[in-house]
TrEMBL record:
<feature type="transmembrane region" description="Helical">
    <location>
        <begin position="243"/>
        <end position="272"/>
    </location>
</feature>
<comment type="similarity">
    <text>Belongs to the autoinducer-2 exporter (AI-2E) (TC 2.A.86) family.</text>
</comment>
<keyword id="KW-0472">Membrane</keyword>
<feature type="transmembrane region" description="Helical">
    <location>
        <begin position="72"/>
        <end position="93"/>
    </location>
</feature>
<dbReference type="Pfam" id="PF01594">
    <property type="entry name" value="AI-2E_transport"/>
</dbReference>
<feature type="transmembrane region" description="Helical">
    <location>
        <begin position="220"/>
        <end position="237"/>
    </location>
</feature>
<feature type="transmembrane region" description="Helical">
    <location>
        <begin position="42"/>
        <end position="60"/>
    </location>
</feature>
<keyword id="KW-0812">Transmembrane</keyword>
<dbReference type="GO" id="GO:0016020">
    <property type="term" value="C:membrane"/>
</dbReference>
<feature type="transmembrane region" description="Helical">
    <location>
        <begin position="12"/>
        <end position="36"/>
    </location>
</feature>
<dbReference type="InterPro" id="IPR002549">
    <property type="entry name" value="AI-2E-like"/>
</dbReference>
<protein>
    <submittedName>
        <fullName>AI-2E family transporter</fullName>
    </submittedName>
</protein>
<feature type="transmembrane region" description="Helical">
    <location>
        <begin position="308"/>
        <end position="339"/>
    </location>
</feature>
<keyword id="KW-1133">Transmembrane helix</keyword>
<feature type="transmembrane region" description="Helical">
    <location>
        <begin position="279"/>
        <end position="302"/>
    </location>
</feature>
<dbReference type="GO" id="GO:0055085">
    <property type="term" value="P:transmembrane transport"/>
</dbReference>
<feature type="transmembrane region" description="Helical">
    <location>
        <begin position="160"/>
        <end position="179"/>
    </location>
</feature>
Length: 356
């Protein structure tokens, strides 16, 4: 009995100490925030380079195992990847910016169309409370403001990229040396890790890679295919701003279940100002692509590497959306996949300790 009390006192003391430490840490924010900002500027290119290396290295390994010289495989994949990104940025960004600016300029006209519809609805639904009509009008104003906000944020983001051009230019060089010396760097990393943690750490990261690696690489390929196909389909059908809306469909496609709905909303809103036929075309394009993606592309490219129940994925998306908005929705599933592997390994670890 006394031992249990001591344990509980120890646990409560530890929690109180942890909360006190966090409180003091937050109070000292003016001191450490400038340091964090400096470290962030320094670390961001390395973090991006590590992520790109993680994506490209397995492809290089596969080419190498098939008899392709490793150095040649690195150069080929390296130039294809960065060459493709460079061409996409050079050709795509100006078009997307032009379409976004045109959308912002034209949105007052779209807004007038919706307001005419609202007046027709008001005359037909005069029995509804006045605040309902006010809410609909406020919604239009907020959407119009959001389009202007989105345009300004996009322009400021691109200006920020131009200001950080030196940091961005370093990334391809870091990636090249990371790909070239990948094996030596991994060996050095494990050499610096305490011996007790090496085996468990290697098993943990192996399982995370098996669960998450194929999912991330596959999802990026699928999103690229879906976005490109949606852009072409919108362009052929005569939809306005095809590259802009196709890009939105491609980016949101990374969000399971809710992605198609989020991606379809902006295109449907603008299509409604053109004609009902265009609305139907947009809906057919978006959900037709999602059907192909769910039944053909994802099973072949992504597979079932995550092994997460749909209810767990939906719960993670709801929590991620609440905490981090769109970014939270995008990273929710990978975070849950890592947590799942962590919990399994922690359970195995404590089971071994108990047996000993």
């Amino acid at each position: 009995m006394n031992e249990n009390r001591v344990k509980w006192i120890f646990r409560l003391s530890f929690l109180l100490l942890a909360f006190l430490t966090i409180y003091i840490f937050l109070k000292l924010a003016p001191i450490w925030l400038p340091i964090v900002s400096l470290l962030k500027t320094f670390l961001i290119p390395f973090i991006i380079s590590v992520f790109i290396t993680y994506l490209l290295h397995p492809i290089i390994e596969k080419l190498s195992h098939r008899g392709f010289p490793k150095s040649l495989a690195i150069l080929l994949i390296y130039f294809l990847f960065f060459g493709g990104i460079g061409i996409a940025i050079y050709k795509g960004i100006p078009v997307i910016l032009s379409q976004l600016k045109d959308l912002a300029d034209s949105f007052p006209e779209f807004s007038k169309t919706y307001r005419v519809w609202l007046k027709e609805i008001e005359s037909g639904t005069s029995q509804l409370p006045a605040f309902v009509h006010g809410q609909l009008d406020d919604l239009l104003n907020s959407v119009e403001s959001y389009v202007d906000y989105l345009l300004s944020r996009t322009i400021s983001f691109l200006k920020g990229l131009l200001n950080s051009i030196f940091i961005i230019a370093i990334i391809p060089f870091i990636v090249f040396y990371m790909l070239k010396d990948h094996d030596q760097m991994i060996k050095a990393l494990w050499y610096m890790t305490p011996r007790k943690l090496r085996k468990t750490g290697q098993l943990f990261f192996r399982d995370v890679d098996e669960s998450l690696g194929n999912y991330i690489r596959g999802q990026l390929i699928v999103c690229l295919l879906v976005g490109a196909t949606a852009s072409v389909a919108f362009w052929i059908s005569g939809m306005k701003y095809p590259l802009l809306f196709g890009s939105i469909v491609g980016v949101t496609n990374i969000i399971p279940y809710f992605g198609p709905i989020i991606g379809a909303i902006p295109a449907v809103i603008i299509a409604a100002t053109i004609s009902m036929k265009m609305v139907i075309i947009v809906i057919i394009v978006v959900f037709g692509l999602q059907f192909i993606e769910g039944n053909l592309l994802s099973p072949i490219i992504v597979g079932k590497s995550l092994r997460l129940h749909p209810i767990v994925i939906i719960a993670a998306l709801l929590l991620g959306g609440e905490v981090g908005g769109v970014v939270g929705l995008i990273i929710a599933v990978p975070v849950v996949a890592i947590l799942k592997v962590f919990i399994i390994h922690a359970k195995q670890h404590f089971t071994v300790i108990r047996k000993e």
